[in-house]
Amino acid sequence: MPASTAAPPKSLTAPSAHAVRPRGRPRKTLQERDDGNRRAALLATAAALFRSQGFAATTTRDIAAAAGMQSGSPFYHFKSKDALLFAVMQEGMRAALARQQTTLQQLAGQPPLAQLRGLVQTHFAVLLGPDSDFIPVMLYESRALNVAQRAELAALQSQYEALWVPVLAALHTSGALRAPVGLARLLILGALNWSVQWFDPHKAASLDDLSDAALALFVGPGAPAS
Amino acid sequence: MPASTAAPPKSLTAPSAHAVRPRGRPRKTLQERDDGNRRAALLATAAALFRSQGFAATTTRDIAAAAGMQSGSPFYHFKSKDALLFAVMQEGMRAALARQQTTLQQLAGQPPLAQLRGLVQTHFAVLLGPDSDFIPVMLYESRALNVAQRAELAALQSQYEALWVPVLAALHTSGALRAPVGLARLLILGALNWSVQWFDPHKAASLDDLSDAALALFVGPGAPAS
DNA sequence: CCTACCGATCGGTAGG
DNA sequence: CCTACCGATCGGTAGG
Fold first, then answer.
1. Contact yes or no for B208/B193 (Cβ under 8 A)
2. Per the domain annotation, does A125 fall within a domain?
3. Which domain holds residue B177?
4. Rounded to two decimals, what is the model's pTM?
5. CATH number of the domain that A92 lies in?
6. What single DSSP character describes residue B203?
7. Straight-line distance from CA B128 to C1' C16, in Å?
8. A19-63 tens-digit pLDDT
9. C1' (D16) to CA (B147) span, angstroms
């Protein structure tokens, strides 16, 4: 939406005592122009800090400072620290779900083993690739959510897990996957999710190496790929 | 804080003044001499709260109240909240290490698959069985440790992981374990450790069911058990 | 181990 | 989004 007043570009100049603001309704203008960017920046900043320090150990002042704001400003974008955490998780979960759905669409008609490889690769990318703070926060900080928030996230998580079930079931039927499907899903996702704790992009194996190892570990060589 | 003002000034004059406060606490005097019990109770209480709420979200007042103490009393036993966390982790790690060493001693000479089964069963018992708050705290709260504490725990963790390596290496050589040993160890322990997040003793499978599923998932049926 | 307390910090808010 | 601020809480301590 075009702004009616040509406000000067947001700069990092130190606020002076007599900074001149456009007349009229600068608040609305600023909000419409900046809200999306600032909100997204807050989300990314909060995700990074929540991941590295944990939710309870991260202060809203930490987040504000890292985003270049003053201490009270995050509350202009989010009602509470809790709401910020929830937004991080929701955003991460929606993005992860969308990526996996795309992956499966691209592998439609392929054998189950190839589909599982795709799911595993995308899961590792979501956890460990670029912009990968959101899902780890969701995985390791959900304790801090209230009941309603947890229920809303649980719906997204169920959708995510449901993507895996037909693939695992097919592999179980073919004999390539030997554990019961339900427990196999929990154990496999656990093995992948734990990589957040030890993966180091600077020295460990690549994400493809990881995916190959996981596939080799979980599915027997007995089932031909096609 | 309620206004408890107008307290009589501390005896500025005669040390022989009557004690303002009535003497005698018949309930506790003897028991609380037992430092070992109270310290152990604090550890168990702290472990349970750290597990369920997280370290940063648990106050020393929470712990004191759950242990039947006043708010300042935990600091009689532990120098800081941080030291209490570290003691929980160290205690848990030592106990886990001792249990796994016993397990392997009892399975000495048995085939690698039987040894892996023992390691997995004991690991699940340590994570999910009775008195199983210590290791989950170590797994999920180590962020809060300082560098020295982390280094000391890392030594114990290395010992623990080293118990698995020969067993996994033997299974890899025999072909039962198809992933590289190093990544297999990380993925397997991740799958087990994640069970803390979903295992429910009241409705899910038993610990033995879990162990069987994990074994079936990780090691191929190709290698005979003996 | 308790009482009484402190200094620092934190989430959040009013008003601009 | 900033300034200025509040009420509550928290880890920790002195002294008994």
1. no
2. yes
3. 81-218
4. 0.85
5. 1.10.357.10
6. T
7. 55
8. 333 333 333 333 333 567 899 999 999 999 999 999 999 999 999
9. 36
